[in-house]
Every structure is written in structure tokens, then in C-alpha cells.
Amino acid sequence: MEGTMILRGGRVIDPVNGLDEVRDVVIVDGRVAAEAAPGAPVVDVAGLVVCPGFIDLHVHLREPGQTHKEDIASGTQAAAAGGFTTVVAMPNTNPPVDRPEILEQVLSAARERACVRVLQTGALSQGRAGKALSDARALAAAGAVALTDDGTCLQDAGLMLEAVRRAAEVGLPVIDHCEDDSVARHGAMNAGDFAQRLGVSGQPGLAEDLVVCRNILICRETGWPIHIQHISTAFSVAMVRAAQRHGLPVTAEASPHHLCLTEACCVLHGPNAKMNPPLRTEADRQAVVAGVADGTIGVIATDHAPHATEEKAAGMERAPAGIVGLEAAVALCLTELVHGGSMALPDVVARFTRGPREVLHLEAGTLTPGAAADVTLLDPSAQHVLHPTQFYSRSRNCPYEGRLCRGRVAGTIVDGAWVYSRLPGIAGRLR
Ligand SMILES: [Zn+2]
Fold first, then answer.
1. What is the CATH number of domain 5-48+377-421?
2. Within 13 Å of residue 100, how many CA atoms lie on the same side as its CB?
3. Ligand 1 center to residue 31 CA distance, Å?
4. Residues 6+ apart with CB under 8 A from 42
5. Fewer CB within 10 Å: N-end or C-end of the chain?
């Protein structure tokens, strides 16, 4: 009976099918089914929310080359514990994923050691150096799901235009980390009063806004979709909203930290609140929340970026940017967005399922009969405290220790098998 069960009596939310009702979810041989198999085990999930497996469009698994920070095994365990059944890995590894051989190597390692689905992006430019384009056709043939230079941004507008045209030829979405280097100047936090008071170099929101506007114009020129990664400023949200009203296929994601935290967090947490784009002002945060709430921003993605403790100890200017996010994202979003009153639960579920599914044209993200049985279960009101020391991730860099949350992941099922479970009597693969 592996991969066969009935999840009984939960509140089932499947935004792709417009479903929000108490009903059973039937799984037969690892797939969602319309009819139960005779004698299938019944799991009582009354009081829980049953969703399609969550998809994270933006994670750094650090393999190959930086496995002291994370690897495919630890990163996908963190994903499963965080409720994600599919993760999309960024190509800024060492070496970067800019050739089909490297991409195949990652996918092969994932087949051996991942406990959730791993999709891999390819680099837009060779070596992510922004000088010459990668071979989009070869990367597509090897299984890349999108092209991006994430971690850096392709600065040359003409080269970006050419990159988007080539991506269009091979049918790959382009996703972009928007940052104008000549304006950002590697600033370690948001430019403004907080940076001045702390004596830390700042990068203004203008660095992001310039490239978001450039990308909207390239999207208008090519007609090809561009997805804006980790949007962080009020102006960028307004520009994406305007572009969508003009019918342009521009999409965007927001990271939980930009929804929940502001630049003030740097005062207390220093390098563990350093990320790129940086935490912004309260007005920016509210605009990003409003963008996620009204659907301008269709995706919540973690930008899970593990770094070793000693690397983060280098101080604000020299520490690498980024925080771990996989195991806090859902709890933070339920707490801040749903219990905070800015969004209804089904809309938050949609940002983790239907939104990312649509950006990358994935089969995942729905409980339609016939779909692979990837399921995320939520305990929507459980009170708990975040303790990063207990994370499955190999790294601890984040400002969340001791943060009180309401709502958490209760279980994660991939292909009809429990990978992570907090349900009494149900053992997940992780514990
Ligand atoms: Zn990025």
C-alpha cells in the first residue's frame, strides 16, 4: 500500500481548481485519484488544511562547490520540513550551472539524494559574468526550467535583450535578479537613515527600480515573459502592476523576509539581516504585502541562501548576503499575512502553488486527479517559536531565533509518501 491512502476530513484548498472545502483527498499509487483503493489506510486530518505541495521558485542548494553551507540532501530536507515538495535551484554554484554537463550533474545528484523534487535553472551568461551568453538551447535540452544569473544581474541592456530573445526561441522563461551595479555599489544594506546611523554602506532602491523598468521594456519589446525575483521596493511593485495592466507578461515574486522585516532588523541582527536586495523601509514592506495581496506578485519564494556562521561573522560590509528561509517561510507568512489580516488563507496557498506553477508552466501545484500526490498539510493556528538551531538546513543564518509564530507545516507528502510528518502515529522519512 506504499503511496496509497485517504486523507480524511481536512479543509482542502486547491487554488488551481478553485477548491476550498472539507473533503477527503484520495491517493492511489503515488497519484491523486478520484476513487479510493479498497482497503486503503485512512489518515485523519480533521482540523488541518490540505494543499497541493508547495513550490519554492528560488532556493540556493549550494551544490556543487559550497557544500559547507548546504547540499542537495540537507537543502531538500529543509524544504520538506518547510512544506515544499518542489524547489527550483539557482545556478550560482561553483562551478556555476552554465553548461549542460553541470546541470546534468546536479539533476543526477538530486535523483540520488533529494527528498523533494529539484528543478534546476541555467545561467543566462557564461560563468554568470555578464559578458557572453550561455547556450540556452543546450541548457533547455538538458532540462533547465528557466534561465537566470541570480546572485548577480546582467548589466548590459543589449545583451539582456539578446538573452531574452534566445530564451524565447528555446521556450525557457527568464527570471531576473534586478540590480544596477553602478547604483548599488555593493551597498551592504538599504541606503537611508539606518545605514547612516550604523555607519554601513547603503544601496538605494533605485538600483532595483532601474532594472525592473528595463526588464519591463525588454518584455514589451520581445513579448517574452520575464519574472522579477525577490521584489523589494514600493516603486518596483507599482511598475510591475502597471506593466501587467498594459498586458505585458511580467510576473514577480516576494520573499518572506521582505514581507515581514524592514531595514530596522539590521540594528539588532547585523549580518544575519543582510541580504540582497536588502531589507527596505516600512513603506516598501507594506507595498510588497499589498502587491502579494492583490496578486500583482503571484509568487512567494524564499531565496533560501545558506551561509556558514564564520562567513556571516565577517561583519556587515564583508559578510555574504542572504538568509536561510525554507523552514520559516510558511510559518512567517501564515503569521504575518493570514493572522495579521492582510490576506485570506486560500490566497496565501495560491502564492505557494498556482503562482509558481504558472510562471514555470509546471505540472506540480494542484490536487487534480491524476496529478502526482505532492501534498502540504498545514496546522493553521498552532502557536510555536522558531528555533533555527533545530533546522534541517546546514546553516543557521537568519534573524528568526525566538520569533513567535501562529500556523505551521504539519506534514509533507511527495509522490504519495510521507517525507515529513508532525502527525501522531505517522512517521516521515526525516524522523
Ligand atoms: Zn537574487
1. 2.30.40.10
2. 9
3. 34
4. 5, 6, 8
5. C
DSSP string, 292-339: HHHTSS-EE---B----HHHHTT-TTTSPP-B--TTTHHHHHIIIIII
The rounded distance, in Å, linking the Cα atoms of 353 and 340 is: 21
Catalytic status, residue 135: no
Give the distance (Å) from ligand 1 centre to CA of residue 110. 22
Other beta carbons within 10 Å of 246: 10
The tens digit of pLDDT for each residue in 271-323 reads 999 999 999 999 999 999 999 999 999 999 999 999 999 999 999 999 999 99
CATH class (in words) of the domain with range 53-365: alpha beta
Distance 113 CA to ligand 1 centre (A): 25
Catalytic residue (choose from 303, 347, 374, 379):
303
pLDDT tens string 364-377: 999 999 999 999 99
Domain ranges of the chain: 5-48+377-421, 53-365
Cell of 197: 546611523
Query: Reduced to 3 states, what is the DSSP secondary structure of residue 68?
Result: coil
Q: Ligand 1 centre and the CA of 135: distance in Å?
A: 21
Distance 229 CA to ligand 1 centre (A): 6
